[in-house]
Predict the 3D structure of the following.
Amino acid sequence: MVFEVSNAGLKPTTAVSPILTEAARRNLETWTLPPLQSGRYLVSYHFVFLEDGVKHRTVLIGSKFGRFFRRLVGAPTERVVNTCYPIGDPDADPPARYTLVKDGDVKIDVFIGAVPRCVTTEASQVALNSHL
């Protein structure tokens, strides 16, 4: 989505989603941009989801002895455990990144990446979250 900032004020030129447009507008209103003699600021926001929000781990089932018998009968000896990123983890979302280009108009690109959160119903995750 792109906003045009000039002496006349702030105006969206392209919009993707009403929710993201409003979030970008509120963010842009917190900026203090120096006034330009001529031209305008073109501020582009790029929103992307970086991953699926889940860590996938493969764990072994039971002891070595138990896995031996599981192999004999063709049963699985490992399983995949899906763990959600904890909400509020500062390392989960990278910081916003900015680029600036002057070519008549001043172009500012804002790159915002986020890891989507997930909901898990596994008993171990529910117990973990209830004790935090």
